């Protein structure tokens, strides 16, 4: 995913290419890492739940109106995800490290489960990241200029 961003008043602008749970490149790298310290939370804010690490324990519960997952990693991190399956579709996630909440996200989805808006809160910082989806492009071919630095 190509991810372009800008902070309030244009400060902290940059771009990144995220593949799975890694960053192929970011420009500037420091801005992106501070903006989104947890790639699984970024994916959750876009309405997608990434597969857990191979050694993670996975717990789940399915109900008519919601589905719940907990991914418990061997590193002590947990990721809880709740998908509300009502007409007002929502995907919520909470990431904990050593039992302490690192980040929480809430994503509103359209009827086709595409993200409309999202917010990630980082209680320790305190900081938040909000996004509103204005367009989606499913182009198969990426032009070469997309992979170049923004400078």
The domain count comes to 2
Radius of gyration: 16 Å
Strand proportion, as a percent range, falls in over 45%
| Biggest β-sheet: strands ordered side by side in the sheet | 4-5-6-7-8-9-10
Which whole number gives the mean pLDDT? 83
Low-pLDDT stretches are none
Give the beta-strand count. Answer: 10
Distance between the termini: 20 Å
> Quick one: overall form?
globular
- In oligomeric terms, what are we looking at? single chain
> What structural class results from the helix and strand content?
mainly beta
How much helix is in the residues? under 10%
Return the string of H and E elements.
EEEHHEEEEEEE
Count the DSSP helices. Answer: 2
The biggest sheet amounts to: 7 strands, antiparallel
Structure in words:
The structure is a single chain. The protein has helices spanning 29-35, 39-45, and strands at residues 2-5, 14-19, 22-27, 57-62, 66-72, 77-84, 90-97, 100-109, 115-122, 127-132. The protein is mainly beta and 151 residues long. It has 2 domains: 1-35, no CATH class; 37-142, no CATH class. It has a 7-stranded antiparallel β-sheet, covered by helices on one side. A 3-stranded antiparallel β-sheet has the order 1-2-3, covered by helices on one side. It is globular, with a radius of gyration of 16 Å. The mean pLDDT is 83.
């Amino acid at each position: 995913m190509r991810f372009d961003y800008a902070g309030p008043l244009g400060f902290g602008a940059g771009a990144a290419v995220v593949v799975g749970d890694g960053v192929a490149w970011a420009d500037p790298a420091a801005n992106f890492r501070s903006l989104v310290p947890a790639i699984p939370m970024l994916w959750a804010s876009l309405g997608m739940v990434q597969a857990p690490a191979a050694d993670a324990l996975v717990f789940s519960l399915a109900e008519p109106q919601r589905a719940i997952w907990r991914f418990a990693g061997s590193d002590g991190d947990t990721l809880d995800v709740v998908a509300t399956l009502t007409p007002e579709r929502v995907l919520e996630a909470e990431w904990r490290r050593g039992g302490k909440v690192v980040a929480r996200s809430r994503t509103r989805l359209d009827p086709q489960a595409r993200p409309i808006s999202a917010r990630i809160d980082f209680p320790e910082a305190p900081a938040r990241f909000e996004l509103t989806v204005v367009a989606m492009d499913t182009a198969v071919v990426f032009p070469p200029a997309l992979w170049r630095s923004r400078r």
